[in-house]
Amino acid sequence: MAHQGSYQVETFAVGLDHEIRRLNAQVDLFWTSERTALERAGLQGAMDVLDCGCGPGRLIELLKNDNPSLRLTGLEIDPVLVDAATARFRSLGIDDCTVVQGSAEQTGLAPGSFDFIVMRLVLEHVPDPVLALRSLRTLLRPGGRIAVISNDFEFHERTWPPVPELDDLYEAYCASRRADGGDPCIGRRLPALLHEAGFSLVGFETETAHSNMIGDQAFFLAEGAGIPAQLVQDGFLAESVFERMVESWRTMLEHPDHAIIRPLFVGVGENPDPQHQAAQGPLSAGVEAPPLRHDLEFVAPSTDLERQIAEIWAEIIGVEQVGVTNNFFDLGGNSLMLEQIQIRLEELLDADLALTVLFQFPTVASLAASREALDVADRPTPADRDTGSAPNPSTTSGAAVSPEAVSAQAQRRRDAAARRRR
């Protein structure tokens, strides 16, 4: 039997009936934006559609009402929710929608049966997301698509005015889900996971629910107090934090301009047609980098220091040569290269360099000149050599330097030395 994952309906919240109502409200909360998101993902016409993790069936109900020509199937691992969805459809007179028990990893459904799959708020709970997505890909016909809708609890419900205790709540929720083998921050990973599972990437977007658009009540029904209360009961959230959160929430709602906002992430993948599919390229294949400038004038280094800096830049940026007037970023340098540049220059100069130095001195000439100025400032004056004293930081190079600046420079040197030892 497939692993239940980090969600079981009878233990996830304080009561079964309350949790079923919350699951239905979670669908309603986003339906206005989600309907159009699914259309953009390719849902249309008389398709065969699977709702993987259909819960009590609310999404299937809304999809059927919106487009009666859809042929809808629900897949649900929890037998309690299978029964709840089946009873719901029976009470509404929907007799052409089927709910079967199974998991994303072990569906029990025939390969190539569907044109479109929706996997909504499920992937964060499964123990092996890529395995689950690969299994679902076998159910799609060539060219069929999947829309994976997921949470990311670092971008979860937020308010105005802020409710500070929400940070504690989400930290407790994440700890609870991870203890059960889930990933509550999986939303940001959807493109990479779809790619690894063999899908061609079609899209990635955010859908948002906002209280100024749909009212407060939709959020109350979708969130409720069941999950925080369960987190308190399970020892993940302090009861005092829960009590403060209730008070902060009440204060927020009393503000005349209050707002509640919550995003979900939607990743869309397509099952490639094996007869026409080119080899899957890298994840970033669809993103074309801006062209590098090849019309830059080359001015050769004139000092050993300029030559050494230019060689370091050329090696790390990956260009043949660097002129002393060429801008680091015009040559293709980026923020990922900054630390490499920083470490190499600190080794060369035996001095500390802040990461921002390339923004201040973005050419070899300006950087070398700044180093030469620093050398001059560090050299003893003739009077210093006569007396054996250290240079006076308030008079060297004709510029006043505060004791705080000298102290900060000394600390940066110690930090630089520590980095070089790593």
Structural description of this entry:
It is a single chain. The chain has 422 residues and is α/β, with parallel strands linked by helices. It folds into two domains: 9-270, Vaccinia Virus protein VP39 (Rossmann fold, 3-Layer(aba) Sandwich); 304-421, Non-ribosomal Peptide Synthetase Peptidyl Carrier Protein, Chain A (Orthogonal Bundle). The protein is built from 17 helices and eight strands. Strands 1, 2, 3, 4, 5, 6, 7 and 8 form an eight-stranded mixed sheet that branches. Helix 6 (165-179) crosses helix 11. The chain is globular and about 85 Å long. 32% of the residues are buried. The model is unreliable at 376-403 (pLDDT under 50).
Could you outline the blueprint of secondary structure elements for this entry?
Blueprint: H1 9-12, H2 16-41, E1 48-52, H3 58-66, E2 71-76, H4 79-92, E3 98-101, E4 114-120, H5 129-137, E5 140-150, E6 158-160, H6 165-179, H7 190-196, E7 200-210, H8 211-214, H9 217-223, H10 226-233, H11 239-254, E8 259-270, H12 304-317, H13 335-349, H14 357-360, H15 364-378, H16 382-387, H17 403-421
Parallel strand pairs: 1-2, 1-4, 2-3, 4-5
Antiparallel strand pairs: 5-8, 6-8, 7-8
Helix pairs in contact: 2-3, 2-9, 6-11, 12-13, 12-15
Counting structural domains, the number is 2
* CATH secondary-structure class of the largest domain: Alpha Beta
The structure class reads alpha/beta
Helix percent reads 40-55%
Contiguous helical run count: 17
Calculate Rg over CA atoms.
Answer: 30 Å
Uncertain spans:
376-403
Order of helices and strands: HHEHEHEEHEEHHEHHHHEHHHHHH
Which of globular, elongated, flat, extended, rod-shaped describes the shape? globular
Distance between the termini: 48 Å
CATH architecture of the largest domain: 3-Layer(aba) Sandwich
